[in-house]
Each structure stands twice: as structure tokens, then as C-alpha cells.
Amino acid sequence: MLPIAFAPSYAHPLPAGHRFPMLKYELLPEQLLREGTVAAADFFVATPPPAADILLVHEDAYYERLRHGQLTRPEERATGFPWSAALFEREITILGGTIEAARRALAHGVAFNIAGGTHHAFRARGEGFCLLNDQAVAAAWLLAHVPAIRQVLIVDLDVHQGNGTAAIFRREPRVFTCSVHGARNYPARKETSDLDLPLPDGTDDASYLQLLAETLPRLLDSVRPDFVFYQAGVDVLATDKLGHLSLTRAGCRRRDELVLGLCHRHQLPVVVCMGGGYSERIIDIVEAHVNTFRVAAELWG
């Protein structure tokens, strides 16, 4: 069993200029089913959570303005999306998918949100195509509702720093945030994660994987998490238009093997969100993401 949150409407309300990178949300499940990595029964339809769950992380005034389409023009521009009711529904559905994935990971060891990873959203504002922070909300939900979860680790390997997540949990010792990202990439103004590992442009497989292999085992030993969230962006690829790193598809898969292999060996439940991916060819994006599912299926299948 490899539980995967999916909602066919994820890509629907987006403006035309955003539809190409969002196409992966439709192609990923098709490829996973076609090749037999997962079965149709592995998918569950994401649904919005109660507002009370969202407000574990986000400020009430911001949530209400977002819900009613009352963001200012500068706020809207910062998110990269024009507001619509469909967009708001998409954002809260993503949150519900990650919360439900957390529930299922507790039972099955691993679960995916085929969207998710909206790590640029802060408590009271959105940025960088992120309006609400799904991993932050799900982490707060676990701490509020599951007594066995006392410490959460967020491993963010998207090429862009998880600035919103870092800011949200700056004063929350029960959530440890780790971000490995391009030093000169978005956002220009970085927040302070519990552990930031900024990388120079052009970082290749060998350097990247050595850093992870040296860092992640020590991190598990020091943080001693009960639950892990993994942001598995594939914008680290050399083919990515926005990434500026130089990982191959094989290197990206090895990255997934390192993270998920450690979680599996330590019997740590993990939720994986797909994060960014902006290569010119959609096949490069989809194949790199599918590799993450393949690795999980080999470990937990």
C-alpha cells in the first residue's frame, strides 16, 4: 500500500502561463498506474480540512481575507496567482491531502501528496505560488492531535529555501526545519531554518549526495523525530530552468533513496510532497518525480 493524495481539479483553475509545470499533477498518476508502481486503490481523493486545522498555523485575519478574495494587489502579485474561488479551493484541498497523508503514513509508514510542498507560505502572507503552507499545517495537526508525535522533522530538498516553513516554526522547538537549497536562488531574502545548507550554483551529484550522506544520519540522531515530512522538489535537476544546480536524474533518485531509506530503517513515518520542477521537457519532471514513488514502493511495497 502506497497512499497517495490526488484531486483532478488541482491544475484546473490556474492561469494559462502556469499550466505547463502543473501538468505533472495529471501525468504523474497516469504514469504510476501505467507502469504498475501503484494500483488505483492506492489513491485517495484529497478534501479540504476544517478551518480550525488551518488556523493551527495561519492567522485568522489572513485566512479570512484569502477565503473572501480580499488580498491586496501587492499581496496577490507576491503569490504569483490571481485570486479566484477555485484557487482558494485548490489550496485548502492541498492542505487536506497532506493532513490525510500524515494520518495514513502513521498506519502504512509512508504516504504522498501528489501536490503539496507549499513552503513559501507564511502565517499571514503567501509568496512564490504558495498561499497556505500544507506541511506546516500537517505538522501542527500531528502535534495537536496525535500524542505519540512529540518531535517532527521537515527535510526540505527543493532548490528554493523553505522560507515560510522556517519562519512559521522559528520558535517551535517541536518542529525542526532543515532546508538544502541554492544559495543564490529564490527567495532573495532567506529566513533562518534550524539547519540551512545553501549550495553554490552548479552543485553536482557527487557533492550534493556526499553532503546529504554526512548530514542526514547525524540529524536523525540529534533531532530524534517521531515523524518526517520530505519536500522532494525536482528543481535540483541540471535541466531545470529555475534551479541552477546540476543534478542528474540518477542523482535525484539517489537523493530519494538516502532520505526514504533512512526513514524506513528507523521506522519513521514519512509524508512526501512533490515540490517544484521546471525543466523544459515535461518528461524530465515527471520521470524524476516518478522515481520518488518507485523508491518508496521498493522500500515499503
From TrEMBL:
<dbReference type="InterPro" id="IPR044150">
    <property type="entry name" value="HDAC_classIV"/>
</dbReference>
<dbReference type="GO" id="GO:0016787">
    <property type="term" value="F:hydrolase activity"/>
</dbReference>
<dbReference type="GO" id="GO:0040029">
    <property type="term" value="P:epigenetic regulation of gene expression"/>
</dbReference>
<dbReference type="InterPro" id="IPR037138">
    <property type="entry name" value="His_deacetylse_dom_sf"/>
</dbReference>
<feature type="domain" description="Histone deacetylase">
    <location>
        <begin position="24"/>
        <end position="289"/>
    </location>
</feature>
<dbReference type="InterPro" id="IPR000286">
    <property type="entry name" value="HDACs"/>
</dbReference>
<keyword id="KW-0378">Hydrolase</keyword>
<dbReference type="GO" id="GO:0004407">
    <property type="term" value="F:histone deacetylase activity"/>
</dbReference>
<dbReference type="InterPro" id="IPR023696">
    <property type="entry name" value="Ureohydrolase_dom_sf"/>
</dbReference>
<dbReference type="InterPro" id="IPR023801">
    <property type="entry name" value="His_deacetylse_dom"/>
</dbReference>
<comment type="similarity">
    <text>Belongs to the histone deacetylase family.</text>
</comment>
<dbReference type="Pfam" id="PF00850">
    <property type="entry name" value="Hist_deacetyl"/>
</dbReference>
<protein>
    <submittedName>
        <fullName>Histone deacetylase</fullName>
    </submittedName>
</protein>
